[in-house]
């Protein structure tokens, strides 16, 4: 991960070629414009996003060569070039950078003649789950939503469910189940309401925004989504539908961590135990004792 980040920083600021350094030792001074990268705490974040590691990137600009203005330009390049950007290491593991702000004010190193500031980024890394530990979801609504999204966006998109995989691709969509409610809808009927969260990740903010809007509009038009239940022998048992009850988008939400789409699907099913023969006729005779 660290080597991948170093290469990315050198791409964003060509002046840092060979000058992206690890954390400085106490009392150590810089003698060339550079960037210093330091890894901080690492904590689990969520079941679908994996864990988050904090990194601090400090660009150093020479006071006699632009000073604060040059520092501002480099800081802007880092924020634009890393925020919500998917990177992949040499082993094929993907991770996402989220800009978290500057941790302190600008600092002048008068002895070396440089000005610097510390920029904080959260690096989100999906948990890599061993193949024999993967449990496939049994939620047919989620499976149907995944299939519908794949058909809507096409084969150039990757559509995931439940969690971000370790080597997730871009562009991609993740659907996950956020809440599940069951309520009575009659003497023999139950109403099931499920809320799903959709995450849309691309390498371009305009593409991301347009795709979110497209999915929300099409889900609103769709009205219902077909669910096919498959039997143990691989034969189709039945086809039923879930209704799109509510769908909305937050275009400012974090794509990787929080997701931009909120979708509620509704389905009515017969209460278990109600499929019994009905009493159609009753015969009565006074002679029965």
How would you describe what is shown here?
This protein is of the alpha+beta class and 289 residues long. The protein has 2 domains: 2-125, Phage tail protein-like (STM4215-like), CATH 3.30.2000; 137-270, 2-Layer Sandwich (STM4215-like), CATH 3.30.2000. Helix content is 20%, strand content 40%. It contains 4 helices and 14 strands. The strands form 2 sheets. Strands 1, 2, 3, 4, 5, 6, 7 and 8 form an 8-stranded mixed beta sheet that branches. The protein has a 6-stranded mixed beta sheet with strand order 9-10-11-14-13-12. Strand 4 and strand 5 (94-102) form a beta hairpin. The longest helix has 18 residues, at 205-222. Residues 231-236 have low confidence and may be disordered.
Architecture blueprint of SSEs:
Elements lengths: L1 H11 L7 E2 L12 E13 L3 E13 L4 H16 L2 E4 L5 E9 L4 E3 L4 E3 L2 E7 L14 H14 L4 E4 L10 E13 L4 E13 L3 H18 L1 E7 L5 E14 L11 E10 L19
Parallel strand pairs: 1-2, 9-10
Antiparallel strand pairs: 2-3, 3-7, 3-8, 4-5, 5-8, 6-7, 10-11, 11-14, 12-13, 13-14
Concise structural overview:
20% of the residues lie in helices and 40% in strands.
Largest sheet: 8 strands, mixed
pLDDT below 50 for ≥5 consecutive residues: which ranges? 231-236
Beta-strand proportion: 35-45%
Known CATH architecture of the largest domain: 2-Layer Sandwich
Number of domains: 2
Structural class: alpha+beta
Q: Name the overall outline.
A: elongated
What is the arithmetic mean of pLDDT? 84
Q: What keywords describe this structure?
A:
289 residues; alpha+beta; STM4215-like; 8-stranded mixed sheet; 6-stranded mixed sheet; 4 helices; 14 strands; 20% helix
């Amino acid at each position: 991960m660290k080597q991948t980040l170093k290469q990315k920083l050198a791409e964003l600021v060509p002046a840092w070629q060979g000058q992206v350094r690890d954390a400085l030792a106490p009392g150590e001074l810089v003698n060339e414009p550079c960037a210093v990268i330091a890894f901080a705490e690492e904590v689990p974040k969520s079941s679908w996003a994996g864990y988050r590691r904090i990194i601090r990137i400090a660009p150093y600009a020479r006071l006699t060569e632009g000073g604060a203005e040059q520092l501002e330009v480099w800081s802007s390049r880092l924020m634009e070039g890393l925020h919500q950007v998917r990177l992949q290491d040499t082993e094929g593991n993907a991770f996402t950078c989220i800009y978290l702000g500057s941790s302190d004010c600008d600092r002048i190193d008068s002895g070396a003649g440089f000005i610097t500031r510390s920029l904080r980024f959260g690096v989100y890394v999906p948990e890599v789950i061993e193949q024999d530990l993967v449990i496939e979801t049994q939620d047919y609504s989620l499976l149907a939503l995944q299939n519908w999204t794949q058909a809507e966006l096409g084969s150039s998109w990757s559509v995931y469910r439940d969690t971000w995989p370790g080597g997730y691709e871009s562009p991609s969509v993740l659907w996950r189940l956020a809440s599940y409610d069951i309520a009575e809808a009659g003497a023999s009927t139950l109403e099931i309401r499920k809320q799903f969260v959709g995450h849309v990740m691309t390498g371009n903010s305009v593409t991301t925004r347009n795709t979110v809007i497209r999915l929300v509009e099409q889900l609103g038009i769709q009205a219902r989504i077909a669910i096919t239940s498959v039997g143990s022998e691989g034969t189709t048992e039945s086809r039923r539908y879930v209704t799109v009850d509510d769908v909305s988008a937050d275009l400012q939400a974090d794509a990787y961590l929080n997701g931009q789409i909120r979708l509620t699907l509704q389905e009515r099913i017969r209460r278990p135990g109600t499929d019994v023969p009905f009493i159609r006729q009753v015969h009565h005779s006074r002679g029965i004792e």
